[in-house]
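Is this the right way to post structure tokens for a design question? Let me know if I should format differently. Anyway, here goes:
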């Protein structure tokens, strides 16, 4: 499973890239707004740090507007992927962009039928938002299972990007469900390598080692 960092913060992106296991970045208008930076130059900086796919979201709500914003954003760098919402207009924009060989990430996906249609339209990625489904007492992981089955039944090549992941268990659950990519907040990426028994075990090994050195 590929791993993307879900942030627009340059410091976090650098630290995640420094781990040596980062495959890409996802941003959205809320994450970019948090940085208070100018959109296009900020995306260019992200693309200098990470060579894998970097998702940049359109803000137009009509198909033609999304497609034209998408074309403009795609000129920033060759690794930009255009994020469009899973709406009827987004579906049309996805098809128009795919016809021009511009890669899309179809976002705000909450049901399998949305994932099916955007795959037919040639989406590169689809982003089911797990955490937000769980927030309203749904089953976010089940959505990943359903999309996986539909894509496998018919051989669709669109990649399932599990998004809105809030904790390490979400990440493990989507890996088990067969997601192709997990986009994860930087804080959660760090949590993935932590376990109290690792720390306790390491302290004990080092203490025993020091005792041995002192006795020789
Ligand atoms: O990748 C989508 C993500 O940014 C949304 O996460 O936690 O706001 O639902 P969240």
């Amino acid at each position: 499973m590929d791993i993307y960092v879900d942030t627009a913060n340059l410091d976090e992106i650098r630290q995640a890239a420094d781990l040596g296991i980062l495959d890409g970045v996802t941003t959205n208008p809320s994450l970019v707004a948090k940085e208070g930076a100018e959109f296009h130059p900020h995306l260019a900086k992200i693309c200098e740090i990470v060579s894998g796919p970097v998702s940049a979201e359109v803000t137009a709500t009509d198909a033609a507007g999304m497609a034209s914003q998408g074309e403009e954003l795609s000129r920033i760098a060759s690794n930009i992927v255009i994020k469009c919402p899973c709406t009827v207009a987004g579906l049309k924009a996805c098809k128009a962009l795919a016809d021009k060989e511009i890669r899309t990430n179809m976002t705000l996906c909450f049901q399998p039928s949305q994932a099916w249609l955007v795959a037919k339209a040639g989406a590169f990625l689809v982003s089911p938002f797990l955490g937000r489904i769980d927030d309203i007492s749904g089953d976010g992981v089940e959505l990943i299972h359903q999309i996986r089955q539909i894509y496998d039944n018919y051989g669709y090549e669109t990649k399932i990007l599990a998004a809105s992941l809030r904790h390490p268990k979400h990440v493990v659950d989507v890996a088990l469900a067969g997601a192709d990519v997990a986009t994860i907040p930087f804080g959660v990426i760090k949590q993935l390598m932590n376990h109290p028994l690792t720390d306790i075990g390491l302290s004990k090994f080092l203490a025993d080692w020091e005792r041995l050195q002192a006795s020789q």
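Format looks fine. Someone answered above. Worth noting: The longest strand covers residues 80-85. The domain at 2-215 is CATH 3.20.20.70 (TIM Barrel).
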